[in-house]
Design brief:
CATH class of the largest domain: Alpha Beta
Order of helices and strands: HHHEEHHEHEEHHH
Strand order of the largest sheet: 2-1-5-4-3
Number of strands: 5
Helix content: 55-70%
CATH superfamily of the largest domain: GAF domain
CATH topology of the largest domain: Beta-Lactamase
Shape: rod-shaped
CATH architecture of the largest domain: 2-Layer Sandwich
Structural class: alpha+beta
Distance between the termini: 83 Å
Largest sheet: 5 strands, antiparallel
Number of domains: 2
Radius of gyration: 27 Å
Strand content: 5-15%
């Protein structure tokens, strides 16, 4: 019988923070959740986390056979993983030998030595979001307390995924802002050079940079960087366009 201890509950609750790490790639996020599900959910022998959206999907599974099982379902649109993603509802197979809803999935599970599975939605802000898929070698592996622990795990896993997504979006925003500020700074330097060299006003100086950018099919910031670094002849900015 599975005992839900305070330590177990605290470890599952801590998932909401574990994904805020330096390695913020999607693959790393999914691997962390899949690995933890194997460790913390009783009866689990294999696991995978699938995130889908915009006609693409990402999967991190504990075995190649599980990844292939998910791929077949997502490609065909049929199976418990595909349905859970589509409808945002849990799906469960208690005995792959007697289950008749998804014969191809059950046959693949049996071949891999798996008898039962539980597919749970990961609640995120994305539609469709993701699912946690855990597999057991015994019939009815995810009944009783094991099922309740899996539900708690999936709930916290959704929080973790949402936090990780927000974290990555913030980092991306900061990086984009940094690049934009650096580009603006070098463009302002290049404009200053042209103002000092030819007596242009700031708007005319920028126009000269833009004209050369169009003529050479290069970005203005790259033209500006070359001018500041002395990699481009200043004389070509003197002619009227």
């Amino acid at each position: 019988m599975v005992t839900v201890t305070r330590e177990l509950a605290e470890r599952i609750a801590a998932m909401a923070e574990l994904l805020l790490s330096e390695d913020d790639s999607s693959d790393a996020t999914l691997r962390q959740l899949a690995d933890l599900s194997l460790e913390l959910i009783p009866g689990s022998a294999a696991a995978g986390v699938v995130i889908a959206g915009d006609d693409t999907w990402a999967d991190s599974a504990s075995a190649a056979s599980i990844a292939q099982l998910h791929r077949q379902q997502l490609d065909s649109g049929a199976g418990p993983v595909a349905e859970s993603l589509r409808f945002g509802e849990a799906r469960r197979i208690d005995d792959a030998v007697s289950e008749d809803r998804w014969p191809q999935v059950c046959a693949a599970m049996t071949e891999a030595g798996l008898r039962s599975c539980l597919i749970l939605p990961l609640r995120t802000d994305r539609e469709p979001g993701g699912v946690l898929a855990v597999y057991g070698r015994e019939r009815g592996s995810f009944a009783g307390a094991g099922h309740d622990i899996a539900l708690l795990f999936a709930a916290q896993g959704g929080v973790a995924m949402r936090n990780a997504l927000m974290y990555r979006n913030c980092r991306r925003l900061v990086e984009n802002l940094r690049v934009a500020l650096e580009s603006r700074a070098v463009i302002e330097q290049a404009k200053g050079i042209l103002v000092a060299e030819y007596g242009y006003g700031p708007e005319v100086a920028f126009k000269r940079l833009s004209v050369l950018s169009q003529n050479t099919n290069r970005k203005v910031k790259d033209i500006a960087a070359d001018l500041v670094a002395g990699r481009i002849q200043r004389g070509q900015f003197g002619a009227e366009s």
